[in-house]
Amino acid sequence: MDLQHGGPLPVGLSTSCSYPESTTAAFEIAARLGYDGVEVMVWTDPVSQDAAALQRLVDHFGVPVVSVHAPTLLLTQRIWGRGDPWGKVEKSCELAATLGAPTVVVHPPFRWQREYAAGFVEGVEALEARTGVTLAVENMFPWRARGREVVAYAPGWDPTHVGYRNLTLDLSHAATSGLDSLELARAFGDRLAHVHLCDGSGSLKDEHLVPGDGAQPCAEVLQHLAATGFTGGVVAEVNTRRARGRAARERELARTLEFARRHLAPAPVGEGSA
Description:
It is built from nine helices and ten strands.
């Protein structure tokens, strides 16, 4: 199943979209559906941690790595050692540089990572300068337990007013936060470097739905990117783990790609921007 390009911005596929299948499966799916690249989620799959193995996938499937997602999730804390969170980010930058990927996506520190959190803003800027890799800090969401909000991130889950140079906008995280993705995109302004394309209904669960299946203004966000000359990355990060087999998974990811290309296409002459 091949989809033709419908807009000037390339669209990548996160390897998380193939879960519970492997990193290799994500490359195969991306090539089959016609995605322009892959974002490697550094995960428990050893291939996702291995530059040589990933380069072989790039060469075999003809799909480049466009970005790397550092192992900064709660579930990936043991990857590349249990301690030294800066070491994980540095290794992610090394992986990206080796593979020719310009961007590493990173989450803000957890509140209990006190030393890491204390120098995070300055450390991100210094690491960008040293490696030449863009570190795009992602918007997260409040954790809630028994009706109460838990402070999980430092300095917080919303990076809008923190001094990061580059930001990642995740539309599902915006939904879980009760925020509007288009308003966030506008607030991020020229600091917006990367987009995780997905959707959410506004529930307390981080859903990562196919864009258009939730309540976020996904089409309007993409149209805004096209209208404002966005030159960063757009990567599908859709949860397909409930799909009944590869064919069903590919249908969801094909829908995502078609949605992205349709709404990233330049507006006809005479139409206003989003």
